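Intended use. Records like the one below are meant for learning the mapping from a protein sequence to its folded structure. Do not use them to infer anything beyond what is encoded.
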Amino acid sequence: MFGAFIIGDELLVGKRQDKHLPFVIEALAKRGLRLSWAHYLGDEPPRITAALKQSLDSKDVVFSFGGIGATPDDHTRQCAAAALNVPLKIHPDAEREIRARFGGEVTPQRLQMGEFPAGSVIIPNPVNRIPGFSMRDHHFVPGFPQMAWPMVEWVLDTKYRDRFNAQEWKEQSILVFEAGESQLIPAMQAVEAAFKGIKVFSLPSMGQDGSRIHVELGVRGDPAQVEPAMRQLRELVAAAKFPYK
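Structure written out for the chain above:
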């Protein structure tokens, strides 16, 4: 499975709007992959460390956005090291990139941006050469989309090409009228029981006055099963005498 951490108080207090979640969903979908989960985290080291410990114990591929700089509110590098119980160390490749970027203007604070958990591998940054880092199947990139997004795509295309299209899926749906979600549950259960590679979903739409307008009812999953599953779903909706289109 693929997951994402999106880190930063600026998102949770509304100073910035997150753009990473739609990006990573699209980047994975282009490669026949799916995002299974995403967590937003503030700049709280204990919470970040606990979340990383949990995900590192899984087999998930995880992208973490933000908090890898050297200012006092950047904690992700330190939390990753704590979650792995390893020290932070200046990475020689990161140091080389930082020195190449700043030349004679290198400072200890700038070099701190190359201190990663021991055993890390760097992720090249095509914008300003200050790299991110990977540990196991966890990949840590900056919060700036202009840097983070090409770095994520580089990781996907370099490390996970053999998984492309492994999670390929399709979706179909209909709009059902004059029915509440609870009245559609038997049809949904019947289709999921008949097609193990399919998830059935419902999305109700409400009017501004709270009145029900329609329910989007559909199936998502194994491309080979979508068409027959949708056919059965339409038949069950019609048998229940609910209009749809």
